[in-house]
Structure formats: C-alpha cells, structure tokens
Amino acid sequence: MPDYISWIIFAVAVGGLLSLDLFVFHREARAVRMREAAAWVTVWVTLGLSFGGWIFLTRGATSGAEYLAGYLIEYSLSMDNVFVFAVLFAYFGVPAAYQHRLLFWGVMGAIVFRAIFIVAGTALLSAFHFVIYLFGALLLFTAWRMVTAGTEHVDPSSNPVLRAMRRVIPVTDDFDGQRFFTRRNGKLWATPLFAALVVVETSDIMFAIDSVPAILAITTDTFIVFTSNAFAIMGLRSLYFLLAGLIDRFEYLKYGLAALLAFAGMKMLLSDVVHLDVWLSLGVIVAILLLSVVISLLATRGREVPETTPPAH
Questions:
Q1: 3-state DSSP call for residue 300?
Q2: I want to staple 265 with a disulfide (CB 3.0 to 4.6 A). Which of 136, 167, 199, 231 is the partner?
Q3: 313 within a domain of the structure (yes/no)
Q4: What is the total count of domains within the chain?
Q5: Contact 217, 139 (CB under 8 A)
Q6: What is the pLDDT along the chain (313 residues), one digit of tens a residue?
Q7: What residue numbers bound the domain in which 174 lies?
Q8: What residues are paired with 188 via a beta bridge?
Q9: Confidence (pTM)
Q10: Would 309 be classed as within a structural domain?
C-alpha cells in the first residue's frame, strides 16, 4: 500500500475520533468519573492495538512489532505525564468539569509538537550518525533524573513561557466557564484555563524530548513513530481521569519508566556493536513495565481508592 494512502487513512481515522470525542461525547462540560474513564481507556487501547494489527497485515510482522514497541513506550511514559498534570491542575484550581476540554486541546498541541520532533529527529539521524549517541546520552540522563526527582518539584509559577505570556496577555483570577479567553471592559484577558494549557503544552514538549528519542531507538520509520505516538497520546485524557485517583498505587512505576529510558539509551549508544532484534526489544519493554506495575500494586495493596473525580482545588 502506498505511504500516502496509509497517511490518509490514519488522518481520517484520527480526525473522526477526535471530532466525536469533542463534539458528541463531551460536548457539555462535566466531570469524568473513574468508571467512565476506565471504559474510555479500554476503547482507546483497543483502537491503538487494532491499528497495530492493521500495520501487521499491510506492512509485515517487523513493522507491526516496531509499532507495538513504540506504542508501549509512549503509553507508559504518558503515565508520568498524568502525575504531573494532577499537580498542574491542583495548582491552577481547574474544576473537574473543565479538565477534559483542557486535556483535549493539550493533546491536539502534543500531536503537533510530536510531529515536529519526529520529523526533526529522523532527519538528524539520517544526516548525522553521531546524533544517535547524543540521543542515547540524553535518555540515560533523563532516566537518572526521573529516579532522583519527582513531581513534587513541579512549579508552574517558574515556567518561563507562562511568565512571558502573562507579560503579553493579562490573566483573570477566576474562570469564565470553559473559555480560554474573555473580554472585560473591552480588553482581552486570558483565563486560568489558558494559563494551565500553556503549562500543559510546555510540559509536553519536555516529555517529547525524552519519549521521541526512546521510540527512535526502536525504529526511524516516520509513519510508525508518529502513529504509535498519536494513538498513545489520544488515550492520555482517559488515562489521566483513571489514574489521577490512583497515583499512590503506582509508587514504583517511575523506576520502571527510568529503566525503559535507560534501555532505549543503551540501545542507541551500542547500536554500532549490538543489534537487538525488534521482538527481543519488545519483550524487554513488556517485562520492564509488567514488573514495575506488579511491584507497585503489591507494595501498595490494601490502600483504599475512593470513587472520585481527579483532584482540583
């Protein structure tokens, strides 16, 4: 199948799904409960894996395995985003009813930024071989940073993009429904919802610097890298609403994510001397994720998790 047809099929599918999500299922502002979020997580994961099955059928087993590995890497790293988002939403006091809209547009921006990073990353790797060592070193540094730092160090007030935005557009103290902007006394103001969106987008750029090189350690096929990223990111909203109330149950997940980044980094650094089969890489990724999740759940068993919406103060 020609590449342009694959891109058209993907674009139509993604555009249709996102339109249904925003204009049909979540047209009105409302809080998303954990049970509903669990159902949507199931839907998005099923769609993402089904697209991987389509790649298996049309592009072969190797491409299918590369897609699945990329999808698992991005989806698992998205869990770290979830914990940061919980901190950001609490800082800005985003009401639970508005969080889905904020995450929707955050995801849209994330897809655009990932596309830019992926195109730039693959172009750099094609033009300059030494870049693979820079990416590998970056992933090892990120793995170390993930183990030694946590979301408690997130401080939205120090975000340079947010401070620059506030110098250009004044921000109201209160929300105006789901609006990102409002007019008061004939002057345009940004609402705290837009300020939160700015921090969400800049945070995702930082995550992309880590996650895109991690997937490029598996494959440099632009179509596979981008589609696996996109399907994982589109499920991020429901994943947030499901996991925001379960943060304490994933106490050791960050060590698994750090190990995942370290594995991808070492794979890049040793790429000229060690060539791992994509199926072996996929097995390592699955093993790391399963082990970190199982250890976390066993270590935190017995903790009560109330049926609530994600926190917002």
A1: coil
A2: 136
A3: no
A4: 1
A5: yes
A6: 667 788 888 888 888 877 777 666 666 666 677 777 888 888 889 989 999 999 999 889 999 999 999 999 888 887 777 777 877 888 888 888 888 888 888 888 888 888 898 999 999 988 888 899 998 898 898 888 888 865 455 567 777 888 888 888 888 988 888 889 998 888 899 999 999 998 888 888 877 877 888 888 888 899 999 999 889 888 887 888 777 666 667 777 788 888 888 998 898 898 888 888 888 888 888 898 889 888 888 887 765 554 444 444 4
A7: 3-299
A8: 183
A9: 0.81
A10: no
